[in-house]
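Escalated from tier 1: flavin-adenine dinucleotide holo job.
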Amino acid sequence: MTGNQNTDFFDFSRNLSGEERSIRDTVRRYVEQSFRPVVRKHFADGTFPTELIPELGAMGLLGSSVHGPGCPGLSSTVYGLICQELERGDSGLRSFASVQGSLVMWPIAAYGSEEQKSKWLPELAAGHKIGCFGLTEADHGSDPGGMETRAVRDGDGWVLNGSKLWITNANMSDVAVVWARCDDGVVGFLVERGTPGFSTNTIHGKYSLRASDTGELVFDDVRLPESSRLPDAKGLKAPLACLNQARYGIAWGAVGAAEDCYETALKYAGERTQFGKPIAGFQLVQQKLVTMLTEIVKAQGLCLQLGRLKDDGINEVPLVSLTKRNNVAMALDCARTARDILGAAGITDEFSPGRHMANLESVYTYEGTHDIHTLIVGAEITGLPAYR
Ligand SMILES: Cc1cc2nc3c(=O)[nH]c(=O)nc-3n(C[C@H](O)[C@H](O)[C@H](O)COP(=O)(O)OP(=O)(O)OC[C@H]3O[C@@H](n4cnc5c(N)ncnc54)[C@H](O)[C@@H]3O)c2cc1C
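Tier 2 regenerated the structure:
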């Protein structure tokens, strides 16, 4: 095909610095060379390519915008671009980096003691240690304030009882950031693997995010010293602030998945011949491609503005919610349309859109469902919370 196949159709790249473009392109090459060749097998097997984790660390892709010992300390815009490129590969790869960076390293940097920061941050940034984040419970998803996991004071320390479900990296993790209710409200702990009474289980049978470890954390009379508590995490707003960091990265990541779907569909449409010409030459197929590109370009613009605002210190929850809500729904629509353009071939794992489509169903639900983000923005613009 001779057309303009540049997915950066409005040249948003011109608004990126040379360093930002260079990091984006480096990550894109890495994902193409090291991740894409293995993702099909990992998705089929339901495994994560753990051998890549130290490479992600060495490239500064873990907790890239976190500030602390051993952390890359890059801008939020760069963090967004990294998420975009990782999710071009697979939502599972971006999920790994989101959890490690935004949900484990970020709370340690924001709420941890100096001892916790120096013990964990360099190891997590390097990918030598893996973390997970336990907030959701079987009976408390969208409303984590109802959590039943309890932390009770016991002499100088604490005793933890309860469980967390749907936890990314649960079974691979060396340390879990765990949120529990105590007499004074919600508190956070760092629970190390091997602590007596702490165990993890794998969730089997997923059709989405298969190249990602999802599991359960179980706490059965787990005794924790006071030094394992995150001293500056006070109340439910502490875990919700972590989620806001992660949702920001997801908003960018979804664009990467959508771009990969669009590019795959555009290429296929140029090569696939029916009724004597490439299907890209039919008006209906062009309409689908144009709709995909239009929505992707709008989402790219939203992300860039959101990133610049965040780098200026503006990290408004409703802005992140609006962008996550729009971009994930957009990416899911793109994945379905790309699958359609690929015809029967679209239902096999030879092509990425079917995998992205299945993955994005999880992304639509986690880190605040699509509906919950509607309610966050709705409350912002009307002043009337409609959660209950
Ligand atoms: C693959 C995967 C990985 C995950 N990783 C993690 C992790 O690492 N750590 C973690 O803590 N959690 C994790 N989660 C959990 C995720 O955050 C929850 O699934 C999410 O918060 C939704 O909770 P739920 O699944 O219980 O759905 P529910 O809260 O039961 O929602 C079900 C439906 O009801 C709707 N609904 C709920 N309340 C309202 C309301 N007030 N008004 C209108 N509609 C409403 C929802 O929008 C949704 O459509 C993960 C989930 C998945 C699928």
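Residues 99, 133-136, 141-142, 166-168, 209, 214, 362, 365-367, 369, 371-372, 375, 387 surround flavin-adenine dinucleotide (CB under 6 Å).
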